[in-house]
Each structure stands twice: as structure tokens, then as C-alpha cells.
Design goal:
Blueprint (H helix, E strand, L loop, with lengths): L1 H11 L1 H4 L1 E13 L5 E14 L4 E7 L6 E15 L2 E8 L5 E9 L2 E7 L4 E11 L7
Length: 137
Amino acid sequence: MKTLIFLLLGLQSTQLLAQYTITSFSMNTINLESGDIVSSEDRTETYNISFKDKLFIHNIFDNETNSSINSQLYKIISIKEEEGMTYFTTESGLSGKNYTFILKVDGENVQFFQYFDEEELIEYKGNSSGFKTFNQD
């Protein structure tokens, strides 16, 4: 029985040890009350997420030249798993502001969102891949 409990707890927390690279080609701003898409924008961005290292890297690319025009490193300051989703908050070293993100993983399907307030959410549309950690423990 103890083995079964440890196995279930281990499976539940495996997402916290996972690392992801999210490549987004477009984003939709969604009104949470109505579920309607309020605005859409085509923009190539990457997000490297390492829960193990507590690091989050955001890169923005120029769509015409495919070159990086902005990169920033954030510290992940909180992580919470709830109802099959991982909620995490990052802190900007530049501005000191906090940003909240949601990661939903269902098998091979990874969905990535940024939560602004009780009214709006940004959905990033693209694909995902693995990301190698710095901390190998």
C-alpha cells in the first residue's frame, strides 16, 4: 500500500520536474467571462521553462528577419499544480514585476497561457519540445 501511495505521489509531481520549450507563432487574448477572443496577434516567441532550475526565459523574434529582438530571464518564484494544470509565477529582474502563467499538459499536447487578471488570459499558439536543465540532480 505504501508503495502505491508513493508511486501515485511521484506521478502527480513529475510535471514539476519537467522542462519545456514553447514556441509560439500567434497569441489570442481571451475574455474569461465570455470565452470570446478579444484580439489576436502573429508574433514568434519562445519560452524556456525549467521548474527544476526555477528559471524562465522569454525570447521575442522579428518575423521578417527571424532574428531575436528581445530576450529576458525570469526567476520562477511559485509553482502550484491544480486540476491537471501547473500555475507558476515569475519575477522579472528588470522591473521586479510578477507574471502568472498556466501550463496544461495532456500527453503530447501542451497548452500555454498567461493570466493577467480575472478578465483576460493570453493563449499562446504553437508547439513545444523538451528543454535541458542546468541542475542535473
